[in-house]
Amino acid sequence: MILLFIINILFCIGLYACGTQGKIFYKQATWLAEKIGELSNPIINCLTCMSSLWGIVFYMTYYFMFTYPYQLNTNIHYLYLIAYILSLTGVNYIMSLVITLITSQIQLIKRKTELLSLDIQLKKQNGKS
């Protein structure tokens, strides 16, 4: 079950990353957002929202393929499903915060590098005149 959880997290992060600008599924993600609006968030456009749809898909696939034939009490799995989705949502939310932080830091470093190169060019121009 822990392996399923980790695979589900990585799947959500990977699918979300593929739907960002400049990536392979960007056109499809944009098209989905235009056609169905916010309903596209659980499919590809929101890392935290993806936990609900893809968590159910992964959990129920695992349940019916590996657990269902051997389980005597079939009602308890709904509680596991709720716990699974909530914990997946929490981890994906933390990951979305980390991704946002890293992205903003990369953009800040790029801006500082551009400003530094402009400053060096200005100093070279002032030195020549």
Question: Can you describe this structure?
Answer:
- There is one protein chain.
- With 129 residues, the chain is an all-alpha fold.
- The protein is built from 5 helices and no strands.
- The protein has one domain.
- It has helices spanning 2-18, 26-36, 41-45, 50-67, 77-128.
- The termini are far apart.
- The mean pLDDT is 89.
How would you briefly describe this protein structure?
This protein has 129 residues and is mainly α.
Element-by-element helix/strand order: HHHHH
Characterize the largest beta sheet: strand count, sense, and whether it forms a barrel.
none
As a percent range, the share of strand residues is: under 5%
What's the oligomerization state?
A: single chain
Indicate how many domains the architecture comprises.
1
Q: Give the number of DSSP strands.
A: 0
* Number of helical regions: 5
Spans of at least 5 consecutive residues whose pLDDT stays below 50 are none
Rg calc: 22 Å
* Net shape: elongated
The helicity comes to over 70%
Structural class: mainly alpha
Distance between the termini: 70 Å
pLDDT averaged over residues: 89
